[in-house]
Each structure stands twice: as structure tokens, then as C-alpha cells.
Amino acid sequence: MPVKNAALVRLNPVKGIKIGIAKAYVRYVNRKDLTVFEICEGANVAVVTTQNQFCAAPVQLVREFIKNDSPRYLLINTGNANAGTGEDGLNRAKATCQALADKTAVKISQVLPYSTGVIGESLPSDKIIAGLDDALTNLDEDNWLNASHAIMTTDTTPKGHSEIIEIDGITYTVTGISKGAGMIRPNMATMLGFVATDASIDKRLLQDILTKTVNKSFNRITVDGDTSTNDCCTLIATGQVGEHIDSENHPHFAKLYQAIATVMLKIAQMIVQDGEGATKFITVKVTGGKTTQDCAKIAYAVAHSPLVKTAFFASDPNWGRILAAAGYAGVDFEQSKVSVSLDEVKICERGGLADGYSEERGQVVMSRPEITIHIELGQGWASDTVYTCDLSYDYVKINADYRS
Asked: What is the dihedral of CA 320, 321, 326, 332, to 10 degrees?
């Protein structure tokens, strides 16, 4: 039975953000595939983007525009990634940004474009431009849930989460949405993620918050080990509530940071739970490392291993595959100090079969829809965690038929 996210019923609006949705028919006939975010004046925006060297045209423009201006609009299309499209792709992305800028009386550099979908196909910019009026006519603060549907591609469920916190009588809202189910091994971003808060946060501090929270959420998930050409994650602080927060020493910073981190982690984990063909949600926790980097290397080696992932799909407690993946991660450790557990069942102790372990106990754990692999290295005090899923027949089917 596939891992599924809980049904989204409502996402809380964020003061200073309005969202419009429309059908642009980029690739899909009967679904909304164009999203416009309108951001209030005075808001601060932070962005992290893919480290894939073949980054898409919209990613290149986001990097350029965010350096020189304060964004007022986000323009998002699904169905076409506009990646691997050369100069033509840049021109078409610019044309859509210019069209939205003209309709809203802002500069082109105040429109950030985002695309997701098939790589290597020309962006139907005329269709996107034709859909802008519809998107602008239904701009609404309460459109987050609709947007979570509109940015989907091979996703089977929308992804979003809200946190509301009160500090010293001031109520802050943090809401975020993301999309992604395949080509997931983000590197400095996610497939697409948009998170906003009504707090007032200094721009440089906002960028620092985004980088740190992404590194513990979107940069700790993997479905298939592939880093997309289009990964982008955007964090917006509209400044509509509370006093200005300009440092980590501000009395409101810690709780607000935790709320943002919670939203980031929730919508990142939802991507793994909706991994293409996924039937298991797997947490790989590595402790007792010399450094966090060592722990991350081992966690990712296990999370990426096709042999480990297929064993979990089959509910086969072939725990030797976990040891093998940890061993080729490029980290020095003493195997005689290593222990491995699947949930509460210890399978490996001091580098060998744990006392009391049986195939039957391993089978019970492996049959669960959510499982934690805990690898204790016994080398130090560092730790790290990565989230992944199993690898099923359906993953191959979905990606073999993606353009059909």
C-alpha cells in the first residue's frame, strides 16, 4: 500500500501574500497549472537554488533578479521545466516575466519565474502569457491550498503545512507548500518550495534562516538520488506583523525560527512520502560519528542504495545491504563498534549479528509503512538524519511513461 500524505484541508493565509491560479494548458488539459504570488511592498525574499550545473532558464533568472531587486511577484508553471533550452529558453522565460511586469506595473526584475516539468522542450510562453489575466483576477490571500495543487507534476498528493505561534501577545503565521515526487536529491533547494511568514525579518537574517532550515529539511531527503535542474526554495517575510527582527538575539527569533524549520521539514518529508511508486517512508539516522559530514555521507549512501531500497519494498530484512552501503560511503570507522537497528529491533551489534535477532522479528519491522534505520558508529558525538523511501516497480513505470 503506497505511503500517502494526510489530506490537506486548509492552509492558513499569510498577511501580505495573495495567490492567483489559472489554466494555461502548458501540458495538461483539465487542470490548473499556472500560479502567481503577489508579494506586498516592503517584504523581504530569500532564495536557494539547485547546484545542478545544467540549471534551467528560470533558475538563472531567479539568481540574477534576486541580486538586484525586491521581488513583487512569483510566476510558476508546471508541465514544462524550460531546462536544456539554451538562449531560447531564457528569452521565453523573460517574455513571461515582462508580460506579468507590464500587467502589474512593476519591473521585470521584480518577477521571479519558476518552472517544473519535462526537460528539453521549448516553453510555451504564449500560453503562459495568455493565462496571466485569469491568474490575476483571482488573487486571494486564501489560495494556498489551491496553489499546492496547481504546482504538482507527477505528485499524487498536494504538500503543505501551516504553523501559528504566539509570542508576547503577537500571533505569527508560517505557511508553506512544495511539490516533488521524483528526481529528488536536492542540493541547496528542493524541487519547488514556497514558504512565507507575516513576520518582519532582516533580509540577510532571512537568507541565513532559509539556508539553515533547508539544510536540515530539503537537503536531507532523497527519492532517487537525482538532483533536478529546476530546484528552488523561496522564503518570504512580509513584515505585516510584529516588530522588526534583525538578529538571532531578538526575543522572538528562536520560536519563529523553529516554526519555519517545522514547516520546512514537514513539506520536505511529504515529498518523500509521495515519492514516485513509494510504499515505505524510511528515516536513516546515523549517530556516534566523528563529524556531521561523516554521518550524512553514511546516511545518504544507505538512502541511495538501490539494493537497500528494493529490500525495503519487498519487506526483506536483508540487513547486510545496509552494512555494505555504510561501508562504501567513504568514511573511516571501526566496524567492531557499529550497531544497527530497525525501529526497536537491533540487527547488528559490534559489527556482527545481534544477540536475539531473528528473521521473523526483522520481517515484522520491514512490513511497516514507516521505518527508522538507526546506525550507531561509536566513533564520536556527531549525528545526522536523512529521509528516503523504497524503490518499487511503479517508480520504473512512472518514469518510463512520463512523457507518454
From this structure: 50
Known active-site residue 190: yes
Pairing of strands 17-22, 232-245: unpaired
Based on the number of CB atoms within 10 Å of its own CB, is 395 exposed (0-12), middle (13-18) or buried (19 or more)? Answer: buried
* Amino acid at residue number 93: A
DSSP assignment string, 272-290: HHT-TT---EEEEEEEEES
Q: Which of 21-25, 81-85, 328-332, 399-403 has the lowest mean pLDDT?
A: 399-403
CB atoms within 10 A of CB 236: 27
R_g (Cα) of the chain, nearest Å = 22
Q: What digits encode the pLDDT tens for the residues 88-119?
A: 999 999 999 999 999 999 999 999 999 998 88
Instruction: Dump strand ranges (E) for 182-255.
Output: 192-201, 232-245
How far apart CA 182 and CA 175 sit, in angstroms, is 23
Contacts of 228 (CB under 8 A, 6+ apart): 50, 52, 180, 183, 184, 186, 191
Identify the CA nearest to 42 among candidates 305, 247, 239.
Answer: 239
Out of 190, 229, 234, 279, the active site residue is 190
Q: Do residues 282 and 307 touch, judged by C-beta distance below 8 A?
A: no
CB-CB contact of 321 with 307 (8 Å): yes
123 neighbors 80 (Cβ within 8 angstroms): yes
Q: How far apart are CA 272 and CA 268, in angstroms?
A: 7
CB 282 within 8 A of CB 389: yes
384 pairs with which residues across the strands? 286
Question: What structural domains does the chain harbor?
Answer: 17-273 (3.60.70.12), 281-400 (3.10.20.340)
User: Checking DSSP bridges between strand 281-289 and strand 370-376, what pairing results, if any?
Assistant: parallel
Q: For the whole prediction, is pTM greater than 0.85?
A: yes
Alpha helix (H) residue ranges in 275-370: 292-304, 306-313, 320-327, 359-366
User: Taking the mean position of all CA atoms in its chain, how far away is CA 164?
Assistant: 21
